[in-house]
């Protein structure tokens, strides 16, 4: 398939959009004229709801330098780092972007590990580790394998969240080797999205053009009441659901008998190898019925959430060169079972965000300055 020359994609969440994201857009534009975000919808990778509606977050990005934002749809937006990355890379490839850009805390360490994580036996070594050590998580096993080849100190650096995601992007992109990869160093001078959410997303912590879109944010825990109720009512086999093995299924069942709130259930189930984010993702799987089969698929569409002057012609080009659907008018996109499943989830999330029916939404289009 023809590639869209001069275009780059950044897999992102913008939860919220902050100065670090604006810096990433500025640095990316030094490499490519057109930069798009492929952004999580209203459920994000750490197993929580986003702090603001996806159309608002996308609008903030376009007002602060991005040329457009496509959706990384549910359930892929709320999967583990490996599966989240695979889905985002798939959309970038199918849409025809020339390059993939991401930020990392330790750029040199990530680039040093590139050859290792793309080697033919890397996954085999991880699988062997997990078999040897009962209940060892995939991230911990990967850290051990990297420590063998690079030393413990470097492997610990690579266990930082954005470094982990960066390596997963590299691995996923190496399967087809059609995207150019660029890594941009994250600056410690910018507040993280997590710290901003903890502070209630203060407007002075956001770029001026982004702040208006985050005036009415919601807590990370807004979804929690639904998670605990769903877990207590679920009577099926939890082990068929995404992110849940037999051991975790048993712990969740026990927690649901003994604990009342989602916070208590998550705390009870968290272990050295099962992070709180994994437990939250498991509870989301229960709430929405996400199976291991669902997660093994690839996204079959994306939604245009926002675009600017340079982004709109790119959308037209994507539609011309690619068979991958870019949904502009949700109400007109029918016959896609994965999209229909995502819509069911969106309707639950309307209770949190108090947004219009997802079928009635339209992309945010940045007004041209005349």
Question: Mind describing the biggest β-sheet?
Answer: 8 strands, mixed
Amount of beta strand? 5-15%
CATH level-four homologous superfamily name of the largest domain: HUPs
Please state the CA-atom Rg, rounded to the nearest Å.
20 Å
Count of all domains: 2
Percent of residues in helices: 40-55%
Terminal residue distance: 36 Å
Number of strands: 10
Q: What structural category do the secondary elements indicate?
A: alpha/beta
The appropriate CATH architecture of the largest domain is 3-Layer(aba) Sandwich
The run of helices and strands is: EHEEEHEHEHHHHHEHHHHHHEHEHE
Q: What number is the mean pLDDT?
A: 94
The CATH topology of the largest domain corresponds to Rossmann fold
CATH class of the largest domain: Alpha Beta
Shape: globular
Uncertain segments are none
Our count of helices gives 16
């Amino acid at each position: 398939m023809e590639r869209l020359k001069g275009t780059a994609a950044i897999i992102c969440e913008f939860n919220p959009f902050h100065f670090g994201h604006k810096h990433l857009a500025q640095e990316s534009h030094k490499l490519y004229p057109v930069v798009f975000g492929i952004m999580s919808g209203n459920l994000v990778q750490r197993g929580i709801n986003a702090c603001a509606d996806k159309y608002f977050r996308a609008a903030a990005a376009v007002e602060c330098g991005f040329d457009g934002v496509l959706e990384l749809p549910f359930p892929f937006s709320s999967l583990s780092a490996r599966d989240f990355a695979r889905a985002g890379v798939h959309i970038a490839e199918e849409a025809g972007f020339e390059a993939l850009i991401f930020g990392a805390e330790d750029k040199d360490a990530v680039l040093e590990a590139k050859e290792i994580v793309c080697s033919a036996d890397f996954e085999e070594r991880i699988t062997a580790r997990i078999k040897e050590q009962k209940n060892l998580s995939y991230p911990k096993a990967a850290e051990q394998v990297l420590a063998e080849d690079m030393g413990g100190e470097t492997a610990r650096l690579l266990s930082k969240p954005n470094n982990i995601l960066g390596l997963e992007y590299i691995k996923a992109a190496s399967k087809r080797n059609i995207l150019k990869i660029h890594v941009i160093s994250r600056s410690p001078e910018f507040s993280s999205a997590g710290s901003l959410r903890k502070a209630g997303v203060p407007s002075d912590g956001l770029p001026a053009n982004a702040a208006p879109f985050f005036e009415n944010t919601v807590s990370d825990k807004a979804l929690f009441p639904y998670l605990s109720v769903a877990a207590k009512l679920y009577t099926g086999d939890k082990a068929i659901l995404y992110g849940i093995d037999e051991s975790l299924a048993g712990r969740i069942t026990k927690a649901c008998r003994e604990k009342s709130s989602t916070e208590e259930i998550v705390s009870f189930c968290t272990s050295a190898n099962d992070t709180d984010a994994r437990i939250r993702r498991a509870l989301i799987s229960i709430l929405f019925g996400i199976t291991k089969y669902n997660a093994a698929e690839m996204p079959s569409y994306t939604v245009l959430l926002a675009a600017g002057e340079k982004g709109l012609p790119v959308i037209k080009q994507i539609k011309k060169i690619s068979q991958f659907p870019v949904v502009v008018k949700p109400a007109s996109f029918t016959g896609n079972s994965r999209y229909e499943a995502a819509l069911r989830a969106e309707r639950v999330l309307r209770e949190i965000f108090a947004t219009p029916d997802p079928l009635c939404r339209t992309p945010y289009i940045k007004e041209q300055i005349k």
